[in-house]
Every structure is written in structure tokens, then in C-alpha cells.
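Example for tutorial group B:
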């Protein structure tokens, strides 16, 4: 016994303390393991946060006004290193077509992983992420499984972004094309309310664009021409000629091409109609019909004196078929002794010039004619053609009554080199 405490008692207390120490050691080990697990979870969580932030920042690039695909790829390169486990030695490169975008520190990496960028299923480029220093092997070289999944996610995201941007750019180009199109284009919803009309269609109908948006498209059509909706729903590339009405109530002929707009479920959501004002064409057709049936001869030549149109009366008057004259030199109508020189400046000043002269038929016979010549100009005032109306005046005069020497000075004449105009 020692100081009133037995040896046995001391041994028991010592055993209990040793047991407690072991328990504390086990608890410490568990604590350390738990702490390490928590730290690993925190590291993984931070890594996941970095990855999510990387993907989010890449997507956010789309929100920048007027950003291009090139701008998005450059922005992506800046975000990639931050999401990798060793950002300080991470470099990246994106190729797109024949273009490359690299991080400032990019040079041949010690190790790297790549992923294809696909647009509509076709490979259009690659993403490459590399380490500039050697690191211990992991899932794929030094890269973790999560990093492989991340680069694949980035490449898929870029593919979707490029598809979206190309679609947007295509829509912008399409809109610009439609805005400048001379044909009218109007889109309506399924209730016939106008949701879009281009400047040509608005102008064609005498409106400003803002006057038409939200209006019933029947504002374009006389009441008697309005079709029931159940019939319109069956239209698909339907072409027809009709009559439309302007804001001032006047009507005009149009050619219309209509089609149905459907959503992905095949449901009708609207209609699109292309309109062509046929007024000028109808006028031209009426004029041509008038020329075809008139008894006076009408011939149109280009500035190189080639015949581009002649009516049956002029062809018959000179003893030809119409198809024999198209493309021929107009001097075919004139006797050689009247082929004198006339400058271009003199001819282009003619406006309704009237004269009497001698023409020659296909069989070589001569006959007196009364000619009216005028100049055809384009919108810029440039001479592009000449039109001459011919009248056979054999019943009123004889060739001997016409001063051929005088007529040779007034006739449309041509030089020896075959060039009718002198600049």
C-alpha cells in the first residue's frame, strides 16, 4: 500500500487513463479524417463552383450587345484557366475554322486534353487545355475526370452558342434582305393581325409601317376578295393574282404568294404573304399588246443600233418576219446611200424628231416613210435605247418627190467604221 492507495488501485486507474488516451487518439484520428474529408469536400465544392462559374460566364457573353462569335471565343479562352485545378500553369487554345484564339501564356504544353466543337453535328473547331508543367497522373494524364467532363461541357456549350449566333446573324441578314426587298412581305398571326410588314409592302399600300402593325390584314383587300380563315389554313405556297386596295381607296393589280407558318407541333401560328405590284407590268403588257396590233411600225434599238424589239407592222412593212430582225443592225431598214455620220450627242438630243425619208425592203425595193424618233433614258437620265415609229406614206408621195440629199443629212446615219456615235 502506498500512501493509503493500493498498488492494484493504481494499476486500475492507470489502465483507465491509457484507455481514455486511446479513445482520445481514436477521436483525434476520426477528427483529422473528418477534417480532411471536409477540406476535400470544400476543395471539390470550390472546384465545382469554379466550373459552374466558368460555364455561366461563357453563357453570359451572349448578353453583351453586338458580340460576335469571335468575341465569345476570346472571352471563353479567358475563363478556362480559372476552372482548372492548377490555374497558374494552365493555358488554352480554341480553333474555329481557320482562326485560333489563345491565352497570353500559351505555348506548347507539357500535357493537354482536347474536345471537338460541333455545330449541327459537324465538327467546326476544337478546344485545347494544357498544363505548362508536369503534374502527377490522375484520370487522363494529370487531368481529373471532372476536368474531362468540363472541357466536353464547354465544347458543347460553344457549339450551341455558335448555332444560336449563326441563326441570329442569319435572321439579321434575312431581315435586312426583306427590308430592302422591292417585293412586299407581310406576316400575320392566326387571327390575321399584322405582326410584321416590310417597307415595300407598306409603301405599296400607301401606309407607314407603324400604321399597319396590329391591324387586320384585310385592310389590304377589297371586301369581296376576303377568304374565310378555314380556307387560308390550307394554303401552302399558293400563288394567285388579285386586286389590293391602298389607304386612299384606290385599287391595283397584285400577284400574291401565301404560305402557312407552323410551330414545331405542326400547328398553324400565322401566315406570310409576298406581294408584287403588277401595275407597271400590266401597263407594259397593255402597251406591248397595243404595239402588236397597231398599223404603224415600232422598232426599239439599243445604243449600239441593234434591234431589240420590232412590232409585226414594222417587220411586214419592210418585208421581214419579226424573228428575222431581232439583234440585227437597224441599218437594214436604210439604203446604203443614206448611211451618213451622226454624232451620239446629236442623236441623244432628239425628242420626238419627225422627218420623211426613204427605207428599203428585204427585196431591195424602196418606199417613202414618215419617221418619229425618240430617246429612251433610264432613271439617271442616261440614254439606253432609241424608239422609232415608221409610217409607210407610199399612198401620199412618191420617192421622186422626196429630196434624198436633204434626207441623207437628217436620217439616223452611221460611219464607215460601223460606229454610229462619235464621242
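The residue assignment follows.
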Amino acid at each position: 500500500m502506498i500512501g493509503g492507495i493500493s498498488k492494484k488501485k493504481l494499476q486500475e486507474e492507470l489502465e483507465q487513463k491509457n484507455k481514455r488516451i486511446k479513445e482520445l487518439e481514436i477521436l483525434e484520428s476520426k477528427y483529422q479524417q473528418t477534417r480532411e474529408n471536409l477540406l476535400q469536400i470544400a476543395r471539390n465544392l470550390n472546384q465545382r463552383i469554379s466550373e459552374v462559374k466558368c460555364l455561366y460566364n461563357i453563357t453570359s457573353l451572349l448578353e453583351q450587345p453586338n458580340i460576335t462569335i469571335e468575341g465569345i471565343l476570346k472571352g471563353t479562352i479567358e475563363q478556362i484557366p480559372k476552372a482548372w485545378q492548377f490555374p497558374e500553369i494552365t493555358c488554352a487554345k480554341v480553333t474555329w475554322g481557320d482562326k485560333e484564339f489563345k491565352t497570353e501564356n500559351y505555348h506548347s504544353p507539357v500535357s493537354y486534353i482536347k474536345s471537338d466543337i460541333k455545330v449541327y453535328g459537324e465538327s467546326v473547331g476544337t478546344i485545347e487545355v494544357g498544363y505548362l508543367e508536369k503534374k502527377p497522373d490522375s484520370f487522363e494524364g494529370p487531368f481529373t475526370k471532372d476536368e474531362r467532363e468540363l472541357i466536353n461541357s464547354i465544347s458543347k456549350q460553344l457549339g450551341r452558342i455558335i448555332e444560336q449566333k449563326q441563326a441570329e446573324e442569319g435572321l439579321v441578314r434575312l431581315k435586312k434582305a426583306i427590308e430592302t426587298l422591292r417585293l412586299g412581305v407581310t406576316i400575320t398571326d392566326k387571327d390575321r393581325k399584322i405582326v410584321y410588314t416590310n417597307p415595300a409592302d407598306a409603301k405599296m399600300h400607301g401606309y407607314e409601317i407603324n400604321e399597319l402593325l396590329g391591324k387586320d390584314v384585310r385592310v389590304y383587300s377589297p371586301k369581296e376578295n376576303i377568304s374565310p380563315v378555314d380556307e387560308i389554313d390550307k394554303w401552302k405556297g399558293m400563288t394567285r393574282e388579285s386586286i389590293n386596295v391602298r389607304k386612299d381607296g384606290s385599287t391595283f393589280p397584285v400577284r400574291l404568294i401565301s404560305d402557312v407558318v407552323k410551330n414545331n407541333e405542326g400547328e398553324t401560328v400565322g401566315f406570310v404573304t409576298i406581294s408584287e405590284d403588277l401595275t407597271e407590268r400590266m401597263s407594259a403588257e397593255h402597251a406591248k399588246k397595243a404595239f402588236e396590233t397597231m398599223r404603224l411600225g415600232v422598232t426599239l434599238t439599243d445604243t449600239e443600233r441593234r434591234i431589240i424589239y420590232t412590232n409585226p407592222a414594222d417587220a411586214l412593212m419592210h418585208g421581214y418576219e419579226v424573228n428575222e430582225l431581232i439583234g440585227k443592225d437597224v441599218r437594214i431598214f436604210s439604203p446604203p446611200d443614206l448611211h451618213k455620220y451622226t454624232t451620239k450627242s446629236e442623236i441623244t438630243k432628239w425628242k420626238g424628231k419627225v422627218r420623211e425619208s426613204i427605207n428599203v425592203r428585204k427585196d431591195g425595193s424602196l418606199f417613202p416613210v414618215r419617221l418619229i424618233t425618240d430617246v429612251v433614258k433610264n432613271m439617271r437620265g442616261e440614254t439606253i435605247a432609241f424608239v422609232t415609229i415608221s409610217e409607210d406614206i407610199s399612198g401620199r408621195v412618191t420617192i421622186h418627190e422626196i429630196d434624198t440629199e436633204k434626207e441623207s443629212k437628217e436620217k439616223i446615219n452611221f460611219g464607215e467604221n460601223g460606229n454610229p456615235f462619235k464621242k
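The radius of gyration is 44 Å. Compare this with the pattern of hydrophobic and polar residues in the output above.
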